Amino acid sequence: MALLEVQALTKQYGKLEVLQGINFTLEKGQVLSIIGSSGSGKTTLLRCLNFLETPNSGKILLEGMPLFDGDSAAKTTAAEIRQKRLHFGLVFQSFHLFPQYTVLQNVTLAMDLQEKERAKQEKRKPNKQKFAQNLEKAKQLLKEVGLEQKVNSYPFQLSGGQQQRVAIARALALEPDILCFDEPTSALDPELTGEVLRVIRELRNTHTTMIVVTHEMDFAYHVSDKVIFMSGGKIEEEGTPQKVFDNPQSPITKAFVQKSKL
Ligand SMILES: Nc1ncnc2c1ncn2[C@@H]1O[C@H](COP(=O)(O)OP(=O)(O)OP(=O)(O)O)[C@@H](O)[C@H]1O
Ligand SMILES: [Mg+2]
After folding, report:
1. Is 54 inside a domain boundary?
2. Number of folded domains in the chain?
3. Which residues pair with 247 in a beta bridge?
4. Which atom of ligand 1 is least distant from the CA of 46?
5. DSSP conformation class of 52
6. Which of 13, 50, 197, 215 is the least crowded, having the fewest Cβ atoms under 10 Å away?
């Protein structure tokens, strides 16, 4: 069974149909790249998966269980949405680190909040040992993204590439089933994109399931198991990178691929 299954997902902003019936599946441990021109709905799709937007209709299934069902979505409470959101991690184009916290605190914050919320629900005091574990886990994650020297720095003291690697460690801390990236390198100077793409490649090697919206065609070609090309709110073409890039069927995909000069 697919880890993620998206069925007939639609999203409208007023009269604008931004997602017009998106269907795809993603297997555990696979990397899906989503490519497509500006305004085709890529960010909106990621925001719907992460419950930052509510789709108008359709279904999102995780291991066959409905996370979102357009027919019953109105009844979902804010607390339920917070729980559902935990299945996905999201790394934004512009990092979104908390400027007032150190690198280490940026990574521990959400884990600590989670423990506090659990403690509240279970009517107990937060577990101090858990906070200590979170600290160790954050240090380990920061080591894995090559930032063990920067744990006590503040975001403004880091390069864009380093900030993005903190954002990746922070997203991994909550152990999402699927880690999503929205153009993770497009705010970076070209010499800094490599270090971020290297981290994503390493995550692939440890079988992290990922969805990467990207304009880096070379990366999409070499790192993805599957590529989706979006155009005008629809999936115009999907398949292996070889199929989509080397042998596109649709004229729109062909034109896009040619323009991106892989
Ligand atoms: N909150 C919003 N309200 C109204 N329209 C929106 C909103 N967010 C996105 N849109 C519109 O939806 C369409 C798709 O936007 P989206 O950001 O998903 O595109 P994208 O594929 O991510 O583009 P890009 O490559 O430029 O990031 C665009 O026409 C955009 O103007
Ligand atoms: Mg976008």
Report:
1. no
2. 1
3. none
4. 18
5. S
6. 13
Average pLDDT over residues 205-227: 95
Which domain does 102 fall in, by range?
Answer: 97-175
User: Please, where are the H alpha helices in the chain?
Assistant: 42-49, 78-85, 103-121, 128-144, 160-173, 190-205, 217-223, 241, 251-259
Per-residue pLDDT of 74-83, as tens digits, reads 778 888 888 8
CA of 212 to the centre of ligand 1 (A): 17
pTM reported for the whole predicted model: 0.94
Residue 221 lies in a domain: no
Distance CA 50, CA 248 (A): 29
Where does ligand 1 bind, in terms of residues with CB under 6 Å?
13, 16, 18, 36, 38-44
Model confidence over 63-97: pLDDT tens digits? 999 999 998 877 788 888 888 889 999 999 998 99
Taking the C-alpha atoms of residue 161 and residue 170, their distance in angstroms, rounded to an integer, is 14
116 CA distance to ligand 2 centroid (A)?
33
| Mean pLDDT, residues 175-203 | 94
Task: Report the alpha-carbon distance of residue 46 to residue 88 in Å, rounded.
Answer: 10
Residues with a beta carbon under 5 angstroms from ion ligand 2: 43
Q: Is 233 within the bounds of a domain?
A: no
Distance 44 CA to ligand 2 centre (A): 7
Best mutation site among 37, 40, 54, 214 for ligand 1 pocket (most ligand atoms within 8 Å of CB): 40
Which atom of ligand 1 is found nearest the CA of 37? 25
- Give, as one character, the DSSP assignment of residue 149: G
pLDDT given for residue 262 in this prediction: 55
